[in-house]
Amino acid sequence: MSVSGLRGRVMLTFAVGGALLSLLMAVAVFAISRGYLTEQRERSAERLAAADADFIASRLAVPGATAEQALAFVDPPKETSLVLEHDGRWLSASGDEPPDLPPDSLRRMVAAGESGVLPVTVQDRPYLVAGVPMAGGSAYYEFTPAVELQATIRVLGTVLILSALAATGGAALLGRWASGRVLAPLRALSGTASSIASGNLDSRLPEDNDRDLSPMVRSFNAMVDSLQSRIARERRFVGDVTHELRTPLTTLVTSVQVMERHAEELPERSRRALSLVSGELDHLRGMLEDLLDLARAEAGLHSGEVEALELRELLANVLSVTGRPADLLDAPAEVVVPGRKLALVRAMTNLLDNADRHGGGVTALRLRVTGSRAAVEVDDDGPGVPPEERDRVFARFATGRGARGSSAGTGLGLALVAETVAAHGGNVHCGDSPTGGARFTVTLPVGEPR
Amino acid sequence: MVVLAGRFGSMGPVGVRLLIVEDDDRVRASLRLALEDEGYTITEAPDAETALDSLNRLGPPEVMVVDLMLGGMDGFGCIRQVRRTSDLPIIVVSARADTHDVVAALEAGADDYVTKPFEIKEITARLRALRRRAGASGPSAVPEVVLDAETGLVLSQHAGTVRRGDEELHLTLTEFRLLCELAEEPGRVLSRQALLSRVWDRGFFGDERIVDVHVRRLRTKIETDPSEPRTVVTVRGLGYRLDVR
Predict the structure, then answer these.
(1) DSSP string, A255-280
(2) Whether residue A18 is found in the same domain as residue A143
(3) Could A247 and B204 be called an inter-chain contact, meaning their C-beta atoms sit closer than 8 Å?
(4) What pLDDT does residue A358 have?
(5) What are the mean pLDDT values of chain B's consecutive 10-residue runs (245 residues total)?
(6) Do A258 and B33 make contact, defined as CB atoms within 8 angstroms?
(7) What is the domain-level CATH number for residue B226?
(8) Which residues are within 8 A (CB) of A129 and not within 5 positions of it... i.e. 6 or more apart?
(9) What would the pLDDT profile of B95-105 be if each residue is shown by its tens digit?
């Protein structure tokens, strides 16, 4: 599980929080319990030692009794060693020599007249030694084994560590679940957004009664509503303009063609005027088509469907249909791109026309494949485009490269190329050709349509 | 049906009766001038109702040019009405070339479309292609092909008919020619591009949706189950194939 995502981070936060909290609890419980258990054990050792010391004192008070006899009267529990300091001698219940002497700190304390308990280790085993002062400068000590206490504390520690680990894991799972719950609306949002982006404008987020979520859902849906109506408006507008302009243009084009068919019946001056009308009509038509194509491309209205297009064949056909020599094309291999045929044909034709109009004619049309991109290069024989103009040529009506006149283009051709290529996930740029002219390079992603 | 004559009609447009259905007076008048120059005999109708009335009174023309945006009944409705009784070639002229309109017009029964504004030679080329005789591109048209022995589907090029048993199926001229092209060599795949060029006489840049919609229409007429075609089969990524069984 990666911690890079929001979900991972939430989970990590929960886990760390759970770990800290359970660790704190465990440490506190451990410390308190150990303190309490030790205290209990020490108090009972001290009480027992005090009772035994009283008993020994009462025995010593009997005239003629020796310290050894007095000590022997005590019946100590198993594994408990008794040590008596009497008249400067050390006596123990198990023999003359005590198993060990109590630590100095305790002896000083007892010598000062106070009883006390200390943990000690004798032969690698834990003991509690309780010391009780007695009359006449004597002192009585009891070594009680503390193995059980230690074992209890160890078990307690283990249990607490395991609980802390379990709590940490539980917190992580809780975090995972909680983040899943929190992220579910976000996932729905991103799914809907990508569905809308892929053209499904009717997608909406489902209504939500959640107090925290419903404002987001409402504003998202409202945004999509307004986007949809805006797109619908633009589409309607483009459609209306198309119809309103194309209808009179049809009459004009058709009538001019009738007049041209009967041109020999016209006087010379009328014929010349007719040829002007005809030329401008072609120009107007070209401009209208380019404008409408541009508007359609911008409104996301694409005519035709994305299909697998073989670029070499497409370019060869563009050359033949536009009456250019087939040997202009230098394409070593076939390459398939996903695209809309007519749109790409139009873009390529525009590039060739541009080279003819402003660049003194096409000198080469090259198709190259590098990795997952296909590049189409159009070289011309003109003066080239100065570096500072190279972005501007793709703007609308950027007529910097030629005066308006009979050979002028619509001023929209390259803008349309840029728009079309961008809609195909590619790009176009302007550079230098090796002969000093301009080189326009279109790159497109290679592959089958998805 | 009167229109059978169209299958063996002359190639030249001289005297060919053409009905223009167009609501814009000026477009209609200019079209009339241009097409009369080409030799067609023109009948005009400003709306679908007049066009259908003229069909009833004068009988169907040999070709129709229909605008999609008409007052009253629209072009789609007009085409559907005409298709009830007639299989003549219909060309749609439309100021809109949106996917939706084109496909809807073809599905209503149009044979081809031209976008406004058009060159006159473009529309005459379309008309010429649609009026070509069935099987004209194949020199050795097989007189009779049994397409599906099971259902008794028989294509008879000379008679210009498709029959299932005793029943004659009403194919439009274009559907009939499409079927003939596919039946030329059963089992061989024809690309949409090839069909577009043979039936509609359109080049590389023609709209392949025309083929798809016509194949769909053809299937609804000749297939027993158009959703599971057995005779005209789609070969994914390549085109269409006619299977004889």
Answers:
(1) HHHHHHHTGGGS-HHHHHHHHHHHHH
(2) yes
(3) no
(4) 82
(5) 41 83 94 94 94 90 92 92 91 81 91 90 91 57 78 85 88 91 89 91 84 93 89 89 88
(6) yes
(7) 1.10.10.10
(8) A102, A103, A106, A117, A118, A119, A120, A141, A142, A143, A144
(9) 876 668 888 99
CA A287 vs CA A65, A268, A342, A414, A416: distances in Å:
134, 29, 17, 12, 11
**Per-residue pLDDT at B219:** 93
Question: Domain range for residue B198?
Answer: 144-242
Closest residue of chain B to A344, computed from CA coordinates? B205
Same domain assignment for residues B111 and B158 = no
Judge whether A26 and A179 are in contact, CB under 8 Å.
Answer: no
CB A258 within 8 A of CB B30: yes
Nearest to A330 by CA among A260, A433, A258: A433
| Pair of tokens at residue B167 | 């029943």
- What's A376's domain CATH number? 3.30.565.10
Total domains, chain B: 2
Parallel, antiparallel or unpaired: strands B63-67 and B17-21: parallel
- Which two tokens mark B102? 């084109």
The shortest CB-CB distance from B95 to any of A247, A253, A304 is to: A247
Choose among B29, B98, B117: nearest Cβ to A246: B117
Chain B neighbors of A243, CB-CB under 8 A: 69, 95-96
- Give residue ranges of B with CB < 8 Å to any A CB: 24, 26-27, 29-31, 33-34, 37, 69, 93, 95-99, 115-120, 203-205, 207, 209, 237
Q: What count of other Cβ atoms lies within 10 Å of the Cβ of residue A157?
A: 15
Q: Is residue A231 part of a domain?
A: yes
pTM: 0.64
Do A263 and A318 lie in a common domain?
A: no
